[in-house]
Amino acid sequence: MSSEHMQIGEVATRTELSLRTIRHYEDTGLVIPSARSQGGFRLYTESDVARLMVIRRMKPLGFTLDEMRALLEATDRLDTGEELPPEEREELLDRIRGFEQAAQQRGEDLRTQLARAEEFAATLAERLTRTPAP
Fold it and tell me: What predicted TM-score, i.e. pTM, was given to this entire model?
């Protein structure tokens, strides 16, 4: 096995994703192992790990598998290194800009939810300090 390839266990550790989750993403076509060992084990590269990290970051923001696929297809197309027609390149960049804006908005929504949760917890803590012991 090449030193540039990792087995699924190492990838799981590095990405903090379970083996089951990585296999699920493979089943849905979001990430495909770059190679297989002679024994049939999945082998991944740094590029595969980076792809899984994109997915991992999108998941808590509520992006669907189809949305993840759309973003990955756009970035894959841009990363081919081939000359793209200007219209196609701009469409792909627009798609990525849309995801960036959605991620910004979802992050802001999460910050609002977190602030409300912290406010609620503080209210409960205050309530507990005001309640006399029996």
Answer: 0.82
